[in-house]
Amino acid sequence: MAPHDAPGSDEQARLDALEELSIFYTPAEERFDRITRLAARLLRAPIATISLVGAKQTWFKSRHGLRLSEVPRRDGFAPWTIRSDGTFVVPDALADQRFVYCGMVTGEPHARAYAGVALRAPDGSRIGALGVIDTVPRTFGEDDLSVLRDLGAMTEDQLRHMELTSAQAELARELDDARRRILIDPLTQAWNRAGLDALLAREVELATDRGRPFALAMIDIDLFKAVNDTHGHPAGDGVLVEFTERLRVAARPQDAVCRFGGEEFVVLLPGCAPDDAPLVADRIRRRIAADPFRLPTGEAVPLTCSVGVASWVRGEAPAVLVMRADVALYDAKRAGRDRVHVAAAARAPGAGARAGSSRSYHLSP
Q: Which CATH architecture best describes the domain 167-361?
């Protein structure tokens, strides 16, 4: 029997445990991405994933070296891993009849070897797997598997301690998998524009009820069009993925990273006071510029970003907050790019912004 055909109460209980976590189709998080980066490095594998196994699909909560965001359940390794008592190893997928026709073997990423360990929910249900994939046949030694088990335990600890902000957690709990899915950008695994709108509405409610400050950073990749024109759109997509990963590293754990559209992003900064928001924004700017971006060809491309920051004032509509941040972003680009500009405050609660009146915040190139 194929793992995706498994019926019975145990499977339903497993799916219920996964749903209880409200983690399926949620944005990527640095705390999980850190684990997949470590897994790939320590096991010398080009690909590492944290997979969650749903009723019909395997979705990657974190992925290193892989462009796919999900695969049909029958086409992944994780459904087999959750049926294993220990680690699950496939030295050569093309020599294993279970995987000869598997979509991840016959298509992207053309997997040949796999090692994984099941991940358990707090109630003990096996909900997914931490795994590494190689594109050539290979064996995995006991030291490799021991490292994988340790990283799997770290992943389970993170699953027990969800760190999404109040607004993000509320949104995840209120929506089912299908509705959450349409709020996630499939390329970058960040919240999309619709997700940002939903989060902003909730942050305004929280700020109004509790008096908690929050701010918004509008971020644009400088001269990104040249990447697409010179190196092609696949290279541009790779830059967008890496750019998003750097945003998550530089942002605070509670911040929400959103893809606003094209090469423009928003980082929502809950609980961030007006004096602190530019500091967070400048840390993001410096992290982006610190190292060149690597293209699939191996070529290194230096990139920078411009940032506009706006802090919410009581009574201000979300659209006005976004507009003020966008005006500040435009001023930053007009002033020479690779800098942070802070928007002027709204004239009064509910009033518009003073367009073009942002001030520069530029600590270092």
A: 2-Layer Sandwich (3.30)
